[in-house]
Amino acid sequence: MSTAELAARLYEACLSKFPPDHLFYQQDLLGLGIVPKNDLAQLLQLTQTLVDQKLLRLLQGKNDRLAWKIISREDAEKYVFGIELLQNLNPDESLVYNVIHSTGRSGIWVRAIQNRTGLPKSILDRCLKALEGKNYIKSVHNVKFPTRKMYMLAGLAPSEDVTGGAWFTDGVLDANFINSVSTFIEYTVSRKSWYEAPAVEVQRNKRIKTADGSAAAKFPDRSSDRQYLPFPAGYQGYSTVATITAAVNESGITPVRLGEESIVQLLQVLCFDNKLVSLNNGEMYRSIKNPEAVKAQQARKPGPIDPDADDDERRRLVFNGMTEAPCGQCPVFKLCAPGGAVSPETCEYFDPWLEKALGF
């Protein structure tokens, strides 16, 4: 068998039997059984072949021992491509390319490139235009710094810190998408947080007056057909991040496959909104409301309050006390304090609002 074939077998054995970040010593490579008769001279010949192919990197290990680290074929091809690429660039373009290359998937601001290269703005602009025209680099939009023009290598995908993750579309927060996934998650979690108990008929004596008002009649009232009860303490069947993520990806409501990191962000928001409760430090989640209540809440669409509506309708349409109450729009809110010149006790608007909007 030729040296090239043995080197290929040695490389494949290293990939299949060791983790990618493993540091190889001579005994590791000889233990794979690829080198005939464990010939040390031939092992060094094989490793040098792989080093020349950029598939192994020669390092200094523990106690100054000779060691190697495996390099994936994809990274090796990128390395060779980078060498060939730099040979086609002038010194200024090569300097700019190396600075952009060093930032990886995070990208770099134009002003930072200028500071690190020391090039005049006119020369830097010419280099960036040339590199972008050759499809070596690309401009990216950073959601954290929307006004900054940033660059990264054309073959790399921006990190989530740059794009904002799954909840941003073209650098803009997609509120409708977030709301759709959030409502689905709340209902999904609620179905695992409550169980449906058998309906129980409850006899309640209610009195109604007759036409003349002298007599009263009694009639039974039946409870709702569905009754939801919470699971007892110690229950371990609540939804986890993994099950919620799988349910979202299988539902078809998202055009892209979401990761657990993105779902955790929404779960934290739902907990802050008092819709879910985190259990065991985020291992499981429980819904505050039962499935019927969640469905009813999601079906409600609050609209503007009609000034001619009756008190019952006003009470039903008032959802946020801080925005509806006079305090939320009061121009002297910061001066208001108990016992002061402006105080809740002397407010002439507070009592009428309570009476009309809340009914007390």
Which terms would index this structure?
single chain; 360 residues; alpha+beta; Arc Repressor Mutant, subunit A; 4 domains; 3-stranded antiparallel beta sheet; 15 helices; flat; nucleus; RNA_pol_Rpc34; DNA-directed RNA polymerase III subunit RPC6; DNA-directed RNA polymerase
What's a quick, concise take on this entry?
It comes from Penicilliopsis zonata CBS 506.65. This protein is an alpha+beta fold and 360 residues long.
> What is the structural class?
alpha+beta
Compute the average pLDDT. 77
Q: In sequence order, what are the helices and strands, one letter per element? A: HEHHEEHHEHHEEHEEHEEEEHHEEHHHH
Strand arrangement within the widest β-sheet reads: 1-3-2
Low-confidence stretches: 201-206, 215-224, 302-307, 311-318
The number of helical elements comes to 15
Total domain units = 4
Oligomer: single chain
Radius of gyration: 34 Å
Largest sheet: 3 strands, antiparallel
Total E-strand runs: 14
Q: What is the helix content?
A: 40-55%
Q: Could you tell me the strand content as a percent range?
A: 5-15%
Q: Indicate the overall shape.
A: flat
Q: Compute the separation of the termini in Å.
A: 94 Å
InterPro entries: RNA_pol_Rpc34, RNA_pol_Rpc34-like, WH-like_DNA-bd_sf, WH_DNA-bd_sf
Region (Disordered): 293-312
Protein name: DNA-directed RNA polymerase III subunit RPC6
Pfam family, one: RNA_pol_Rpc34
